[in-house]
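Tutorial, part two.
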Amino acid sequence: MTDERHAVPVYFACISRGKLFYNERKYKDAIDMFTHAIRIDPTDATAYLWRGASFNLLQIHHQAILDFNRSIHINPMCSSSFHWRGDSYRALNHYDKTFESMTESARLDPSDAVSLNCAGQALARLNRFSEAVEMYNLSIRVEPHAYAYNNR
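Running the prediction step on this input gives:
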């Protein structure tokens, strides 16, 4: 058997183990698994997204953003990559970029009330209050029980 025949099952095993570690909040172990998956297949956005999410939760935001950017480059239709990137930008107080990422996430997934709410929060931080209220209103229209009511 060649290494290529082993690569696919190993890749999926790394992704699965990485997600298990992530769910157990063992983010460093998750990063190791996703990094191994990336070495096997650097063209799949999944490992970059999950590794970025792990970096984000470890508050290593610059590295997380690099992974989200790579995930977006590979799969520009993945709303989760935009949402997580926006979350990292928010942690770094880059509210313009937070707004851009969150609105793109919501554009790709029109049911994503959370991204709309986060975009509203970014606008409020930028002192663009009337626009923030509109964003909160959009969030509430998408999800009538949204916590955006607390922000209006």
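The chain has two domains: 1-76, 94-152. In part three we will examine how such features are distributed along the chain.
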